[in-house]
Amino acid sequence: MACDLTKGRAVPCKDVVGGIRAVYFVDFGDFTSVTLTNDEVTDISGTFSAYQYVVKGNSSFEQAFNSSRENGTTFFTQTLNLTLTKLTKEDNKELKLLAYGRPYVVVEDYNGNAFLMGKNYGAEVTGGTIVTGAAMGDLSGYTLTMEGQEQLPANFISGATLNNPFAGCASATETIVVGSNS
């Protein structure tokens, strides 16, 4: 049977940290194909721009299992919560475009992993805020929640490097567009 287990799991070493370092947004449809080998992205073909957003603290990526015995279905809800500091008119424009679209999202964590969120259906902005804060130390910036629903958890991307999660994808012709400090 295809759903039989294949291995166990021991308690791993405590050599990882939490948090995400950056996210990359790619317009939906710009990937010509995504190759999976053993549930890992081993290649992406297409010519595309990936817009890098470096984040620091208060941003997270989580995935929920959704399974129904009655319906015989299982899917995964991928949720990205971003906190982006500082309000700018340029960010207002870009985040509006992000909310209108449904991009692919690559999430890079502090352990050197890169995950492809929204592989088949893209990721949708489901909420967020533009906030000035009330007190001197409060957030003046943006919060954003994005969600994807897929048949599989977000896949690891093979060969990802710091600042280029597509480095291991030989068929990708990517342009990484880094942000600027404003």
Give your account of this protein's structure.
- The protein is 7% helix and 47% strand.
- The protein is mostly beta strands.
- The chain has one domain.
- Strands 1, 2, 3, 6, 7, 10 and 11 form a 7-stranded mixed sheet that branches.
- The longest helix has 12 residues, at 89-100.
- The mean pLDDT is 93.
The gist of it:
This protein has 182 residues and is mainly β. It has one helix and eleven strands.
Low-confidence stretches: none
Number of strands: 11
Averaged pLDDT: 93
Q: Rounded to an integer, what's the Rg over CA atoms?
A: 17 Å
Count the domains.
1
Keywords summarizing the entry:
four-stranded antiparallel β-sheet, mainly beta, 182 residues, seven-stranded mixed β-sheet
List the helices and strands and how they pair.
Blueprint: E1 20-26, E2 33-37, E3 40-54, E4 60-68, E5 73-85, H1 89-100, E6 104-109, E7 114-117, E8 124-131, E9 141-150, E10 155-156, E11 172-177
Parallel strand pairs: 3-11
Antiparallel strand pairs: 1-3, 1-6, 2-3, 4-5, 5-9, 6-7, 7-10, 8-9
